[in-house]
């Protein structure tokens, strides 16, 4: 009978190298999609006269978000689940902010 993949058969990280690479690439794909969607959705949400300012502010906060992973390593020293909880709270805040944007019943000014 051929040997199947099982966590019991793994001895070190090299057994997970392909799986790790696939998930890493999927994560990078998701980040790229979110980054590009900022400009696609921003062109639809913000009025023309302040669009560039709003996209600049959104890009600024996106860059701040890019610096957060390096700072959250310190949270793991306190408790290993703190970084995950921190990112869950940030995701929840982003989802709530998405629903706060008024779009129904209003025309977007040009």
Automatic annotation (TrEMBL):
Database matches in Gene3D superfamilies: MFS general substrate transporter like domains
Keywords per UniProt: Membrane, Transmembrane, Transmembrane helix
Transmembrane stretches, start-end: 20-41, 53-72, 84-101
InterPro entries reported in the protein's UniProt record: MFS_trans_sf
Protein name: Major facilitator superfamily (MFS) profile domain-containing protein
The species this protein was found in: Panagrolaimus davidi
């Amino acid at each position: 009978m051929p040997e199947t993949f099982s966590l019991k058969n793994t001895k070190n990280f090299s057994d997970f190298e392909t799986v790790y690479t696939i998930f890493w690439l999927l994560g990078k794909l998701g980040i790229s999609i979110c980054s590009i969607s900022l400009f696609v959705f921003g062109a639809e949400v913000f009025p023309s006269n302040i669009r560039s300012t709003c996209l600049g502010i959104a890009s600024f906060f996106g860059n701040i978000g890019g610096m957060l992973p390096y700072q959250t390593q310190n949270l793991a020293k306190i408790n290993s689940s703190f970084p995950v909880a921190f990112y869950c709270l940030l995701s929840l805040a982003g989802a709530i902010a998405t629903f706060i944007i008024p779009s129904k019943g209003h025309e977007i000014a040009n």
